[in-house]
């Protein structure tokens, strides 16, 4: 593809990055990214992906905007209440960057429909609010060798790990037990803001090939004492999802 | 610290647990050599707020608490029966699933 004069100006500051350039921008334009959940995490993540010029975004969420979302879900505004989140988000992202093709899919991700929902996708960005659906995404990602950028938040804390199937641990390696039941959680709006930005950073890095992704490293952000720590996470050689013995890799 | 000096492990609390511990990153010497014995020690010695976040009323670990031994989930090594050795790093953190 050729970038027009206006695109060259729009993306000029990021194209100045070492290792990015015109080639990096073309890779972004060719990329297809799914943002699975357009809430606290998915709002900033999709915002920065659209701003960076990712060519295709598939927004997936089954919820409508509620008043209690607005402290953190920054793509949804006061006049969007009761509107499907994917519609609300798609409208803002299209205004931000008309060059991005956006599909807004108002569906809940399940084990039955994930193959269809993620068809043709290069990278999945996590915007979920429960571990059960994350495990469904993780299984799909491993089975189809699609990178999956995991993030989650609670209060002023956030976790992030980039899952590149078979190159590092998957989510099931890290959480081998039964997922806890979803529950309402406290959250300062800036926490998913930070983590969603980090997710977008990881996605852009994977697409352009710059930097080192957080594979096998759980990044733990703590806004209360303003610190980042990381834990090295190992692959579980008997992981039911990603090990050689699992049904997904045979 | 513990009763004897065998073995000494590095204990690290993360996320919300960090603020509940007086020393979230420290070396702990325990009298036994299993993860269960480390947790027996923690049940006796940690401040009440941290204990109530870590343990159920019956003393078992709450299901949303994840324990890593040198970066791998402790359940892979036998859970509370996991054998600890000198220098092991035990990281304890809550599962987080909001978005």
How would you characterize this protein structure?
- The complex is a heterodimer of chains A (250) and B (99).
- Chain A has 250 residues and is an alpha/beta fold.
- Chain A has one domain (5-249): NAD(P)-binding Rossmann-like Domain (Rossmann fold, 3-Layer(aba) Sandwich).
- In chain A, 34% of the residues lie in helices and 18% in strands.
- Chain A is built from nine helices and eight strands.
- Chain A has helices at residues 5-10, 12-15, 21-30, 42-52, 85-96, 114-117, 131-144, 171-174, 190-208, and strands spanning 32-36, 56-60, 101-105, 123-126, 148-154, 157-163, 217-222, 227-232.
- An eight-stranded mixed sheet of chain A has the order 3-2-1-4-5-6-7-8, with helices on both faces.
- In chain A, strand 1 (32-36), helix 4 (42-52) and strand 2 (56-60) form a beta-alpha-beta unit.
- In chain A, helix 4 runs parallel beside helix 5 (85-96) and helix 4 (42-52) packs parallel to helix 9 (190-208).
- Chain A is globular, with a radius of gyration of 17 Å.
- Chain A starts with a helix and ends in an 18-residue tail after the last strand.
- In chain B, a hairpin with a 2-residue loop joins strand 3 (65-69) and strand 4 (72-73).
- Chain B has helices at residues 16-20, 35-45, 48-54, and strands at 8-13, 25-29, 65-69, 72-73, 89-94.
- Chain B starts with 7 loop residues before the first strand and ends in a 5-residue tail after the last strand.
- Chain B contains three helices and five strands.
- The model of chain B has no long low-confidence stretch (mean pLDDT 90).
- The relative contact order of chain B is 0.26.
- Chain B has a single domain (8-94), classed as Beta-grasp domain (Ubiquitin-like (UB roll), Roll), CATH 3.10.20.30.
- Chain B is an alpha+beta fold.
- The longest helix of chain B has 11 residues, at 35-45.
- The A-B interface holds A 37, 39-42, 126-131, 134, 151-155, 157-159, 173-180, 182, 185, 187, 192, 220, 222, 224-225, 229, 231-234, 236, 238 and B 14-16, 18-19, 63-64, 66, 68, 70-73, 75-76, 91, 93-99.
């Amino acid at each position: 593809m050729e970038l027009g004069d206006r695109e060259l100006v729009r993306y000029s500051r990021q194209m100045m990055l070492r290792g990015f350039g015109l080639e990096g921008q073309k890779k972004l334009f060719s990329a297809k990214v799914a943002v699975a959940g357009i809430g606290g995490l998915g709002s900033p993540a999709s915002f920065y992906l659209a701003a960076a010029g990712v060519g295709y975004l598939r927004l997936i969420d089954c919820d409508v905007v509620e008043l209690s979302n607005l402290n953190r879900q920054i793509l949804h505004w006061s006049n969007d209440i009761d509107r499907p989140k994917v519609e609300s988000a798609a409208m803002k992202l299209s205004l931000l960057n008309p060059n991005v093709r956006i599909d807004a899919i108002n569906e809940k991700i399940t084990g039955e429909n994930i193959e269809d929902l993620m068809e043709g996708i290069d990278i999945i960005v996590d915007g979920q609010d429960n571990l059960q659906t994350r495990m469904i995404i993780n299984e799909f990602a491993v089975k189809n060798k699609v990178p999956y950028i995991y993030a989650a938040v609670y209060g002023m804390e956030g976790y992030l790990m980039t899952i590149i199937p078979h190159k590092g641990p998957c989510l099931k390696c890290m959480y081998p037990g039964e997922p806890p039941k979803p529950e309402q959680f406290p959250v300062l709006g800036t926490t998913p803001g930070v983590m969603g930005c980090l997710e977008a950073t990881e996605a852009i890095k994977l697409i352009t090939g710059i930097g080192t992704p957080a594979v096998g490293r759980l990044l733990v952000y703590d806004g209360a004492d303003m610190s980042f720590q990381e834990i090295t996470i190992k692959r579980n050689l008997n992981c039911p999802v990603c090990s050689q013995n699992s049904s997904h890799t045979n | 610290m513990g009763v004897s000096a065998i073995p000494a492990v590095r204990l690290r609390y993360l996320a919300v647990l960090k603020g509940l511990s007086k020393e979230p990153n420290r070396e702990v010497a325990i009298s036994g050599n299993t993860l269960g014995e480390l947790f027996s020690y923690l049940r006796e010695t940690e401040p009440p707020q941290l204990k109530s976040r870590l343990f159920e009323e019956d003393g078992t670990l709450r299901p949303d608490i994840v324990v890593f031994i040198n970066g791998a989930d402790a359940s892979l090594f036998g859970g509370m029966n996991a054998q600890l050795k000198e220098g092991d790093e035990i990281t304890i953190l809550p599962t987080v699933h909001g978005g």
